[in-house]
Design brief:
By secondary structure, this protein is α+β, with helices and mostly antiparallel strands. It has nine helices and 13 strands. Strands 8-9-11-10-12-13 form a six-stranded antiparallel β-sheet, with helices on both faces. Strands 4, 5, 6 and 7 form a four-stranded antiparallel β-sheet that branches. α1 crosses α2. The model has no long low-confidence stretch (mean pLDDT 85).
Length: 296
């Protein structure tokens, strides 16, 4: 059964089980996980469920399997109202549940409030964190059509979310040459890696949880602290949405160039990073005051 056929049949079954709900398909580029999703919402409610059918495709072989999956999803439809009650309550609007996190590379932000980090092609977007466990989080993406529920405009929402994120993230800046070795593993980088190990010119920037830690790039205070620790200008290699690699300018020597850094980032993104976690194919330079995109 093709993915397209699975989505079509699942939506049809959900329509029959949940006639009062709005059920629609969302393209991969508009989805937080960069996958085609099925959205289940209800007029007048702020929240909606988002299901990724391909996550269940391995166990789907017959129409009866699709019906069973649809019934299981329908049983959870009450969550839409429960989540909406949380999202729309006044206490949430002034709480610390708002969080800013990096958008994945290529994400359609036309209807999503976002903060473009100056000097980069990286944006932070906003979510409401409804709950956490040791392994998962339940969150709700803030989009333009939901702003009325918060009583604030997009700029105010972004400012609150970014203030919360900076206060709660506990960003860390540590030397980590082994991480760079793991990512590149290229013969022609051996000399650079040896120098890195002896002079500590490779650093990892993330948060305490190593989850959405690349949001550090949006905060000048974090970048300036990294500059103080590294002791000179440094390049930022966007390893993923969860972490950044900082590479001292001292690493650029001999035949290894800025263009090689850019090529390395693209290679790692294409071969080792899931699409939903890719942050950028660019490399950035921090000069102690501001960020600049490096051009080959």
């Amino acid at each position: 059964m093709t993915a397209k056929e699975l989505n079509r049949k699942l939506i049809r079954e959900l329509h029959s089980l949940l006639p009062e709900y709005k059920i629609s398909e969302k393209d991969a580029e508009k989805s937080p996980k960069h996958k085609v999703s099925v959205c289940i919402g209800k007029p007048g409610l702020a929240a909606e469920m988002m299901i990724y059918p391909e996550d269940y495709s391995a166990g789907i072989e017959t129409d009866a399997d699709i019906r069973k999956l649809a019934e299981a999803i329908a049983d959870k439809a009450c969550m839409v109202r429960e989540m909406s009650e949380v999202v729309t309550c006044r206490s949430l609007r002034d709480s610390d549940k708002l969080d800013a996190f990096p958008a994945f590379m290529g994400m359609d932000l036309s209807a999503v409030p976002h903060y473009r980090v100056p000097g980069t092609d990286i944006s932070l977007i906003t979510r409401v964190v409804l709950g956490k466990t040791a392994d998962t989080e339940t969150s709700y993406l803030v989009t333009d059509d939901k702003l009325d529920f918060f009583g604030d405009d997009a700029q105010e929402i972004l400012e609150k979310a970014m203030a919360n994120t900076y206060r709660k993230s506990h960003f860390t800046i540590t030397p980590l040459s082994e991480k760079f070795r793991e990512l590149c593993g290229e013969e022609d980088l051996a000399e650079m890696l040896r120098e890195a190990e002896s002079h500590q010119i490779l650093w990892l920037i993330t948060n305490r949880r190593s989850f959405n830690g690349a949001s550090a790039i949006a905060f000048p205070e974090v970048m300036k602290e990294a500059y103080r620790k590294i002791g000179e200008d440094f390049y930022i290699l966007p390893s993923s949405r969860h972490e950044l690699l900082a590479v001292s300018v001292s690493c650029i020597s001999g035949s290894f160039t800025e263009a090689d850094l850019i090529g390395l980032v693209k290679h790692v993104n294409e071969t080792q990073v899931d699409e939903c976690d890719r942050l950028s194919d660019s490399v950035f330079l921090f000069d102690g005051e501001s960020l600049h995109t490096v051009t080959a």
